Amino acid sequence: MRDFSIDHSPLALNTATLGHNVEGNGAGWSPEQVIDACAARGFGAIAFWRREIGTRAREFGERTRAAGLEVCGLCRAPFLVGPLAPKPRSAAMDDFLASIDMAAELGAACLTICVGGVVEGSHSMRDSLKMVAEMVAEAAPRAKAGGLTLALEPLHPVYGGNRSCLVTTRDAVDVVEAIGHEAVTVAIDVYHVWWDLGLAEQLRRLGGDRIAGYHLCDWLADTNDVLLDRGMMGDGVADLKFLRAAVEAAGYRGYCEVEIFSAANWWKRDPNEVLDICLERFRTVC
Amino acid sequence: MRDFSIDHSPLALNTATLGHNVEGNGAGWSPEQVIDACAARGFGAIAFWRREIGTRAREFGERTRAAGLEVCGLCRAPFLVGPLAPKPRSAAMDDFLASIDMAAELGAACLTICVGGVVEGSHSMRDSLKMVAEMVAEAAPRAKAGGLTLALEPLHPVYGGNRSCLVTTRDAVDVVEAIGHEAVTVAIDVYHVWWDLGLAEQLRRLGGDRIAGYHLCDWLADTNDVLLDRGMMGDGVADLKFLRAAVEAAGYRGYCEVEIFSAANWWKRDPNEVLDICLERFRTVC
């Protein structure tokens, strides 16, 4: 395994960790401030959210690279299926393609996809995943042309009803294999997979080339909100070394992206403090 | 698959569905009222909770059987490990043995075990499960002597931090195999496993003889509480036919036990209405 205590260049920041730069969360930093603060600390990359980018994708991408960082990802495609997806399906597809185009302009390595919940009335994750696979397969050539991959992110099974009918790494690998397009990959997030003792086996099946990202946070033993109460690495029950070993055993050597949704704790702190602690924990417990 | 529209005798009630008979939930029925109401509707069995039984285990067991019903289970052993388990370990073990003795007196077919969360400070589900396996192996002969099985229940991964380091059917089968005692079985609950497309495969590995129970409810797409907002069968996104097919393909022919924790909805209704709807849904959507 890589030794982050002597080289933390694989550390990346997902801007959600600073409250999406929203005024009132942290200091409400602009993307420029985030870029400069990450560069000053030797982070290797940043993942942005569409809401921060607006029409300035090219500009922010260039700004990031000029500061010596990469754009490791863009969050995210719209929900493709289920109760929270744009309707009709063509509207979801249009927004999906628009998000791919934004990621390409930004120069992002991947676009993250949270696929959306079980199709209304279907009572079937299996059928819902088939619809997801069709839509992702349709969009894959556009992603390839834009120089990025589509990163299917299996979400924690608690989101199965409305946010993601894709809830296991096993199913994500099955979908990737069913689609069989080089621009379709998987993102692995500690929050979503920490409980899965079969993770290493599934990632071996996938292979490191098809792992688009590895997202860091922790699962708090007494979590009080499954959307906005993620923990800082080391503060929870996840076996972070075991998880990274699984990802690296599959061949992954990319960025480790800190993504902490924490409305009541980390989003209320000074972003400088949050970044400093991310860095210290990355070097010691990840 | 069995046809419940023509024979609903495999239907069982877990008393939690009526708010644990607590005054203020439903009508605050006594165990005697629950037994009579289930018998009148042709239910096949009842699963009780320790809190309702007190020192009257033998009496309630006989009362149930005299009404033509079986006692399919007792809920439940204490958490064995993790932050919510009695401390020290010997105290958890003592209460575990006391719950086995109560189940034996009641004449229950099994004692349900929710194993408890990740051991504090361990950051390891694997090590926590090893401790669980040791404790269950130690208690298994007492269960066998009492004529019941110890039903390990994998809980939904959302409970991994504090209530159950056992969160997949796969892990449950691994633990059962590691212990290798005939009195150690698994209980499958729709709420906890509905998202697992690998369920059938794992249950085949387990075999029907080691499935101690199949619990019914539904997962609501927009659930607002992962403890007390379960849905009635048919009201959520779970593929109930697919799940029962998986259980029966493994050889299970036992009771299907309705267990709905629903503080804001079903617990507020007249228990007679709740039981009538359970029966109707059992015959039509399960």
UniProtKB/TrEMBL annotation, chains A, B:
SUPFAM superfamilies per the UniProt record, alphabetical: Xylose isomerase-like
An annotated Gene Ontology molecular function: isomerase activity
Pfam families: AP_endonuc_2 (PF01261)
Record keywords, A-Z: Isomerase
Domain Xylose isomerase-like TIM barrel: 35-270
Name the record gives this protein: Sugar phosphate isomerase/epimerase
Organism (species): Rhizobium setariae
